Amino acid sequence: MKKIAAILTILLITGSTACNKDWTNEQYQQYVSFKAPLDGDGVTPIYIRYKPDGLVNYALPVIVSGTTNNKKDLQVHIRIDPDTLQAFNDANFQNRTDLYYKQLLEQYYTIPDTIVSIKKNVNTDTATIGFTLKNIDLVDKWILPLTIEPSNEYTPNPRRNYSKALLRIVPFNDYSGEYSATALKVYLKGEENGAAIVQSTIETYVVDENTIFFYAGTVDENKADRRDYKIYAVFDTTKREVTLNSDNPNINFKVNQTINYSVEDIPDELLPYLVHRYVTINNIDYNYTDYTSVANASIDYTVRGSLIMERKINTQIPDEDQAIQW
User: Fold this and answer.
1) What are phi and psi of 232, to 5 degrees?
2) Has residue 319 been placed in a domain?
3) Cα–Cα distance, 206 to 221 (Å, whole number)
4) Distances (CA, A) of 293 to 55, 80, 197
5) Is the N or C terminus of the chain more exposed, i.e. has fewer CB atoms within 10 Å?
6) Is the pTM above the cut of 0.85?
């Protein structure tokens, strides 16, 4: 019995030693990848504070995968990849070219160094991308498509969504983002006491520091002629008022009363580092004409109610784009 116990002890020790040695070796291939997680649309939104006269840098992580540290100094080359963007658009939208993502124009970005140096025993570094987004028109959906170029020194991750990045550019200011629209009613003009159309949310987009735009009524970014229904909202920080206007006379846009807004910060009841910031737009009341949905006919609408946006802000994170829980 003692001999059997001794043999088992030796086997266990030997097996344990072998397992420990196994874990000192690389268990997988060391690939080079972007850290660019996809959203539900299959792209990677990156949030950039809008600064009209300044450059904003975004650090895109480049990582070496595997179970051990990077074995040597690497010079990782990245470049713009329009072919992947074209293939993505073709696969997702077919002949709906009005829905295609567009490649970000060169005037809006710079990539100072297309080579990312990752040192031996270090598994990550960042590619710095500079954005200057003054006068960008967010009616179009802008993408910066990037890829990791193959090299004799390293192997890009064979999975497409790791070696390539489709960065959707989302500039933000204090008022842009997704608003809850359940309290905003869309009526046929003259039927304001009748049934209303209600959307769950409305997306708003940056124009400048104190201006956003959204689409009139139930129009959204999936409508081919959405550009014709842009409504600008200018926030007066002194009066706490919002001025709405349109640059398309064909929609007969008219505001019927003064619109106010408020901003309120409420600490989270359970997480002391978390702040809930609510932007509320009250007393919305405007008319517009839909002149494109029905051939040879126009439909007049009245829109009334309020919108509210919540931002969850982690006060422990210094970088604003990272502190906001998008």
Assistant:
1) -90, 140
2) yes
3) 14
4) 40, 38, 16
5) N
6) yes
Question: Across residues 112-128, what is the average pLDDT?
Answer: 90
* 46, 35 Cβ separation under 8 angstroms: no
Q: Which two tokens stand for residue 114?
A: 């297309």
53 & 83 share domain: yes
What is the Cα–Cα distance from 70 to 288, expressed in whole angstroms?
Answer: 60
DSSP code, position 270: S
Q: Which CATH number is 126's domain given?
A: 2.60.40.1740
Same domain, 46 and 114: yes
Both 162 and 182 in a single domain? no
What domain range includes position 233?
Answer: 177-323
Do 76 and 157 fall into the same domain?
Answer: yes
Q: How confident is the model at residue 8 (pLDDT cuts 50, 70, 90)?
A: very low
- Taking CA atoms, 291 is separated from 16, 143, 213, 256, 294, in Å, by 76, 31, 20, 20, 7
The letter for the amino acid at 319 is D
Contact 288, 297 (CB under 8 A): no
Provide DSSP, 280-303. EEEEEEEEEEE-SSSTT--EEEEE
Handedness of CA 97, 98, 103, 107 (dihedral sign): positive
**What is residue 21's predicted lDDT score, i.e. its pLDDT?**
52
Q: What are phi and psi of 166, to 5 degrees?
A: -105, 95
318 CB burial (10 A radius; 0-12, 13-18, 19+)? exposed
Q: How far is CA 87 from CA 83, 84, 106, in A?
A: 6, 5, 21
In a domain, residue 14? The reply is no
* 315 shares a domain with 252: yes
